[in-house]
Amino acid sequence: MYQYDEYDQRIVDERVAQFRDQTLRYLAGELSEDEFRPLRLQNGLYIQRYAPMLRVAIPYGNLRADQVRMLGHIARTYDRDYAHFTTRQNLQYNWPRVEDVPEILAQLATVQMHAIQTSGNCIRNVTSDPFAGVAGDEIIDPRPWGEIVRQWSTFHPEFAYLPRKFKIAVNGATEDRAVIQVHDIGLDLKRDAAGNIGFRVLVGGGLGRTPIIGEEIAAFVPWQDILSYCEAILRVYNLHGRRDNIYKARIKILVKALGIDAFRTQVEAEFVHLKGGPATLTQAEVDRVARHFVDPAYETLPATDAGYSAQLAASKGFAAWAKRNVRGHKQPGYASVVLSLKKSGIAPGDITADQFDRVAGLAERYSFGEVRVTHEQNLVLADVRQSDLFALWEAAREAGLATPNIGLLTDIIACPGGDFCALANAKSIPIANAIQARFDDLDYLHDIGEIEINISGCMNACGHHHVGHIGVLGVDKNGAEFYQVTIGGDQGNDTAIGKVIGPSFAAAEMPDVVSSLINTYTEIRHPDERFIDTVRRVGVEPFKTRVYAEREQRKQAHV
Amino acid sequence: MSEIIKNGAIHADEWTLVRLAEGEDAATVELPAGRVIVPLAVWLARRDALLAQAEAGVLGVWLAGTDNPAALADDLLRLQLIAVDFPKFADGRGYSIATLLRARHGYAGELRAVGDVLRDQFFFLTRCGFDVLVPKADKYTRTQLETALTSLKDFSEPYQGAVDRAEPLFRRQSRKEAA
Ligand code: SF4
């Protein structure tokens, strides 16, 4: 994993000093609320419904054990003993005090962490594949590129006050696990016919009020030029993106308004001037960064550990967990483990201070001291020996981190919603918990199979509801909390935006609505068809018909 | 007389910035005496008449966020002062305009940031090539402005290249492995 050198450290230390001064000036009344807002947002600090919220950056989702412990320490010392992982691989504290934030940042800086550009109208924290470096389908490790983009975008002076937020994701595998198609810029690592490394560049994707799938702006940008190319895109956007209407200010609106071809022409016109300039990456720099991401000291092991096989046969519970939460690994005898933060009844993505400590311990003991965060709001121990899986499972169970539900219905993605977020139309967490409570039978969950339910409390789509197989969006109906349901959304290579099934529902109806959708699926599915496959085959209609028919029956039964 | 920051130090301002009021015509608006900074529209409408003043260093031109700096490309050797307006400090178009003037068009004269210019943006403004910062009118006392000078040096070794230091950190410094 990347380790700061003296320059990286100096930049975060100087940031702490800068923000400490800004906060003092704000508290002293020298900085107005309007003047302070963009400054605090660019440090991840929101003023929320009940309290401030601090979003800490976890660049491309990578953490070390000492950092995990620090996150727990902060939860314990400055918050209410817990924190929340987001769909952009970041971490949020819900209850810090504004005056404590400079000190929190100072403590984060001691473990090479920060909250830089986790919000605001700037280039946000870069995201990537949580299985980078270990997945069998990887073409090029995206982590060094994530770090290179992180450094380039950190305090980029020209792009600190963009029309709107700007998100970049990097993928390096055949399967897109970084949702690059719904990012402002999606970088897809490729090799050309001659074996040279470069990027297919997507632009203008995004969720929110107007969900749009990114379009290809360049089929192959050589790695040397990638920062110059991004700079060209950002410059066109900074100069021409709309600033008169916050809902039309994302780059996707500019790309749509111009059309991808005209937008590309403008970017190319900038790029000719930048290509070959000082931002051109050098082999030495790429090598320097890449050396931080070499494989850990794997042991030479047989492809299958005999003890592991025996444990699988002997313990049904272990086997169920392994089936859902353990993934294959490029290195024989190793596996990647997903620690579930989706225990029923807990807010999806939430983690306690005690669990932070335990995760740090598990990482040190079993996975070379590293942890990854997924955009599905779970954690990954990427490099575990198969022979350690049983012991790890037992320890994870004790920590409440071994719910065997990864990829299943209860592995719900949800934003903090109305319980915390000032922008929410409706609550998200109670809906997730009510659905989890309805589907509490593990055998049934396995029978339903892979399905993604994504819940957002408002149009901003932090819960990525558009790309959920079932998407749930909180809407305001005459001051009451209602939920609009979409189906058929998907992430990854087949990214698609879900379709609305019809009028919205009250909170209490949501478990029944999901039951109706699932019952439709289990009745008409073909063998080996996942929920999303069935929706693609038959369309929205059969699902919709049944949902509203059963809703009508429930209403009749109540009169 | 208002105070400005020029190359890192506080100076008295000698320039008057002219903004067109509603209904005023760029071709006919009366310009005050002394050193004036006129809107691009005035410059384009009366270029021949104003050229001598520009070359004498007593007339500059300011650009709005919607103006294309290429409109001045042919005049950059004649103009000794160009200003870029920030209608709101969070409107960041001026950073790209300044970068284009300096890095693309090679403008070497005085480049001023005017409008809603606040100390917390000084560092980024300087990096993008502004050598004169005109703080928002009546925003800072003299003492506050002196303190604000520290914001020019918020970061000592930025990662990426910009106008002030064209080379990114990885070209400026040899970065060793961390221990
Ligand atoms: S989707 Fe809306 S309610 Fe949920 S976290 Fe984002 S802004 Fe808040």
Summarize the structure.
The complex is a heterodimer of chains A (559) and B (179). Chain A has helices at 6-27, 33-41, 65-78, 101-109, 143-153, 226-240, 251-258, 260-274, 283-290, 306-314, 316-325, 353-366, 389-398, 429-438, 442-448, 510-524, 531-538, 541-558; strands at residues 45-47, 52-56, 62-64, 82-85, 91-93, 127-128, 168-171, 185-191, 197-203, 215-222, 326-327, 334-339, 350-352, 370-373, 379-385, 413-414, 453-456, 470-477, 480-487, 499-500, 505-506. By secondary structure, chain A is an alpha+beta fold.
Characterize the structure shown.
The complex is a heterodimer of chains A (559) and B (179). By secondary structure, chain A is α+β, with helices and mostly antiparallel strands. Chain A is built from 18 helices and 21 strands. Chain A has four domains: 6-109, Sulfite Reductase Hemoprotein, domain 2 (Alpha-Beta Complex), CATH 3.90.480.20; 127-292, 2-Layer Sandwich (Sulfite Reductase Hemoprotein, domain 1); 306-398, Sulfite Reductase Hemoprotein, domain 2, CATH 3.90.480; 413-557, Sulfite Reductase Hemoprotein, domain 1, CATH 3.30.413.10. Chain A has helices spanning 6-27, 33-41, 65-78, 101-109, 143-153, 226-240, 251-258, 260-274, 283-290, 306-314, 316-325, 353-366, 389-398, 429-438, 442-448, 510-524, 531-538, 541-558, and strands at 45-47, 52-56, 62-64, 82-85, 91-93, 127-128, 168-171, 185-191, 197-203, 215-222, 326-327, 334-339, 350-352, 370-373, 379-385, 413-414, 453-456, 470-477, 480-487, 499-500, 505-506. In chain A, the strands form four sheets. In chain A, strands 16, 17, 18, 19, 20 and 21 form a six-stranded mixed β-sheet that branches. Chain A has a five-stranded antiparallel β-sheet with strand order 1-2-5-4-13. Chain A has a five-stranded antiparallel β-sheet with strand order 3-14-15-12-11. Chain B has one domain: TIM Barrel (Alpha-Beta Barrel), CATH 3.20.20. In chain B, strands 2-1-8-7-6-5-4-3 form an eight-stranded mixed β-sheet. The A-B interface holds A 3-5, 7, 10-11, 14-15, 18, 22, 30-31, 35, 38-39, 121, 151-162, 227, 235, 238-239, 243, 273, 277-279, 281-282, 284-285, 288, 291 and B 65, 89-93, 95-97, 99, 104, 118, 120-121, 123-125, 127-128, 144, 151, 154-162, 166-171, 173, 175-178. Bound molecules: iron/sulfur cluster. Iron/sulfur cluster (SF4) binds at residues 415-417, 421, 423-424, 456-458, 460-463 of chain A.
